[in-house]
Design a protein that fits this description.
- It contains four helices and five strands.
- The protein is mainly alpha-helical.
- The chain folds into two domains: 72 residues; 69 residues, Arc Repressor Mutant, subunit A, CATH 1.10.10.
- A three-stranded antiparallel β-sheet has the order 3-5-4. A two-stranded antiparallel sheet has the order 1-2.
- Helix 2 crosses helix 4.
């Protein structure tokens, strides 16, 4: 009877080892597939950003040429445009907002780099000490610049 129990335990342990081995192999395969998918998505995102940037430049050039002809200097980047020496520039409030946004980008970048497993905007906001909605724009700016990447709702550092 004792021998039968010992044989069963050995069989269970052998099966457990086999299952763990298969699970480890599947994990390696999933990680490899995810890495390949991320690199393909990164290339695809780069192509999209390049085409959108070209469209933005074209649109901006068209807007500048029509604004110069009509003398109409509308809103730029959500800030009031100030005309000096014939060129539109951003007013004082916009400069302060820009400085604050670039500081937020650095906070977002450092927070994402501290969490290689990925971090949500809500958790990032809690860690930084601000409402998460204030981090949406800096996070998307960093994503568009290719400094961090986003998969679903998690942000990851680029390795």
């Amino acid at each position: 009877m004792q021998e039968c129990i010992a044989v069963r335990r050995a069989l269970v342990e052998c099966r457990r080892t086999q299952v763990h081995l298969v699970l480890a192999q599947r994990l390696v395969a999933r990680r490899k597939m995810l890495s390949e998918m991320r690199s393909m998505l990164r290339v695809h995102r780069f192509e999209i950003v390049a085409s959108v940037s070209a469209l933005r430049r074209t649109c901006h050039a068209m807007r500048n040429s029509s604004a110069g002809a009509t003398g109409n200097y509308g809103e730029e980047s959500g800030a009031r445009a100030v005309r000096t020496h014939g060129e539109p520039t951003l007013g004082f409030g916009a400069k302060r907002a820009f400085a604050s946004a670039s500081g937020r980008e650095e906070e977002v970048l450092h927070t994402v780099q501290a969490h290689p497993e990925g971090i949500k905007l809500v958790d990032m906001g809690n860690e930084v000490g601000v409402d998460w909605r204030r981090l949406v724009q800096p996070a998307h700016t960093l994503t568009d610049a290719g400094r961090i990447e986003q998969m679903d709702e998690l942000f990851y550092p680029i390795r």
